[in-house]
Amino acid sequence: MKDVIIACDFPNAEETLAFLDKFKEEKPFLKIGMELYYGAGNEIVKEIKRRGHKIFLDLKLHDIPNTVRKAMKVLSALDVDMVNVHAAGTVDMMRAAKEGLTRADGTRPLLIAVTQLTSTSEETMQKELLINAGIGETIIKYARNAAEAGLDGVVCSPLEAGIVKEACGKDFLTVTPGVRFAGGSVDDQKRVTTPGRARELGSDYIVMGRPITAAEDPVEAFRRAVREFVG
Ligand code: C5P
Known about the structure:
By secondary structure, the chain is of the alpha/beta class. Helices cover 45% and strands 16% of the residues.
């Protein structure tokens, strides 16, 4: 099922809740990242869940498998709906993450992987990280590793959604940031795609922050994103 996820990149609980108070009818799927989580902790997660929203907790775990397994167990108990890890942590680490997330009744949040961060250029990846493959090849290999570990999908650009699905199967989820309305500001994003184009390219979830959070009418901006992406 396609959905629009709003990136709640706010520094504290007050601003986040003031933003959410604008939504009287819809309960958008929300992404909580490191800034808000480290600042406002489990309390904000619980409050947002109490209000009936789904949550993608974007903490990008990357550590030894045992530590990630135990950390995921804690996040799973928070009742979030989607979490993520760095695929660079290896297939073993991703398997451990999935084990830790799985609750006694067999349910668990969706688990997705970050392949290469979009802030990492091919040149940096090769010169600093000594990865001698091309960046596209690396992204596909990391996505395949995530699929092998039993993960549900990856975060990627909508422009990569097609090749990821070709490599990992059509049910392998693509969660895609870098989405902007036609004619809107691109902010610091480099390669942007409209919600409608992301839909055509096969994204399962688009992640949109500032085009909604900084809009004059965030509710209308969210509705527009849903109209264009979900239909
Ligand atoms: O405001 P904007 O729509 O650019 O927000 C996009 C969100 O997606 C931010 O929370 C950003 O950190 C996140 N993100 C991204 N590109 C990635 C991975 C995550 O923009 N490759």
